[in-house]
Amino acid sequence: MHNKVVFHAMKALNSFGFPVLRFNFRGTGLSAGQHDEGRGEIADVQAALAWLKREFALPIIFAGFSFGAVTGLRAACPDPNVTALISIGTPVDAAGRLYSYSFLRQCRKPKLFVSGDRDQYGPHAALEQVVAQAADPKELVFVPGDHFFQGHLSEMRLTVESWLHELSGALIDQKL
Length: 176
Known about the structure:
Blueprint: H1 4-14, H2 39-56, E1 60-65, H3 67-76, E2 82-88, E3 93-94, E4 97-98, E5 111-116, H4 124-133, E6 138-143, H5 153-175
Parallel strand pairs: 1-2, 2-5, 5-6
Antiparallel strand pairs: 3-4
Helix pairs in contact: 1-5, 2-3
């Protein structure tokens, strides 16, 4: 929740006037519960999405970083209130865990994947394969840096802001 990548993603979304909810998964920081290998954490994201819907009654753009990205994509793709998805530092192979993204084949929402060009948990070829198998529309952008965009957080943030600008234009055009 207090990670620099998450903070910069929040600032990018806030710059468009979107309310943003940041939270820790169960067992992280001061959150109750214990880590559940992703199963219970999907429920955490679903609860957060439900709260956003009740509180603001606005379309939701999901953004997640690393474990939060993979877990959030699983929860947000089928949610009809989520209109677009941003996956930052998408892990493919982290700490011996291999992540599966086959569910993205059915996810037809606009998707942005942002990764550091030296991301140790999302090697180029593996991440390109994940994105290639995802349903359109989608975009993959590599920016300088490692998994945490060390020294390049501004480039990551500008990439998200640019995509949000394009997305907002496309959504307005669809409604006209």
